[in-house]
Amino acid sequence: MPRRAERTSRRAALTGKRYPLNIRTTFEVRSLLEVASAASGRSLAQEAELRLERSFLDQRLMLEALELGYGKGLAGMLLTIGEAMRASGQAAGFISTHTLEGAQNWIGNPIAFLQATEAAVQVLNEAKPLVDKPMPLAEADAEIISSFGRGFANAILEEAASGVSRSDATADRAKLLHTFISAELAERFKEGEPREPLIVQASGPSPQSPLTLAKLSKPAPRAGAKK
Asked: If you write DSSP's letter for every residue of the chain in order, what string do you get?
């Protein structure tokens, strides 16, 4: 069993000093590092260090860009939804296929996608503003607003699937969305037809049976909630 790495003390840290980090990589990763090292003229250790530093920088830039684009409140909600969907989707993908590949490719797994959807809905339900009293709204306005959710969603789904917008004002958004979604998702968005609900049937008492997966779809009580 490899020895556990010692934690570097902040007090002992010296500017510019390099501290050892013993790691093992796959043959493919080492080969990529060797090619990059030869092209840049850096040593293998320097190339690995640079790429590790960039990974942390990229993560910070992603978070800053998310906050800049959506504001802190919505950015936090999107991150929460994303983490909840990924955690539940990967777990259900692994249990339903018994493979790491199933966990990684959970978006294409109907059972795993159902659990990820449940996770997203749970987060959104908990994020709903509390209503102390009815909000006054004219009947005509209420009728118009009632179609906003589905209407705007369908328009954005169309943009994501095609990369084309019906308005010049959202042309850049359409191109961006289309660039980031997979071809599989684009095809799903193009269909635009409601799908039959997934029915999970019991097949036995195994802890990893469809019966267990069906139970997972039930909303879990919040921590501290009354039973």
From this structure: -PPPPPPPPSTT--TT----------HHHHHHHHHHHHHHT--HHHHHHHHHHHHHHHHHHHHHHHHHHHHHHHHHHHHHHHHHHHHHHHHHHHHHHSSHHHHHTGGG-HHHHHHHHHHHHHHHHHHSPP-SSPPP--HHHHHHHTTHHHHHHHHHHHHHHHS--SSGGGHHHHHHHHHHS-HHHHHHHHH--PPPPP-PPP--S-TTSHHHHHHHTSPPPPTT---
Q: Classify residue 128 as exposed, middle or buried by CB count within 10 Å of its CB (0-12, 13-18, 19+).
A: exposed
Cα–Cα nearest to 198, from 87, 101, 122, 112: 112
- Count of CB atoms situated within 10 Å of the CB of 120: 17
CB-based contacts of 209, cutoff 8 Å, min separation 6:
202, 203
**One-letter identity of residue 181:** I
Q: For 157-167, what is each residue's pLDDT tens digit? A: 999 999 999 99
As given in the structure block, the two tokens for residue 136 are 């006054």
Please write down the long-range contacts of 193-202, taking CB distance under 8 Å and 24 or more positions apart: 198/110, 198/111, 198/114, 200/111
Q: One-letter amino acid identity for 210?
A: P
Under the banding of pLDDT at 50, 70 and 90, the label for residue 200 is low
CA-CA distance, 115 to 90, in Å (whole number)? 9
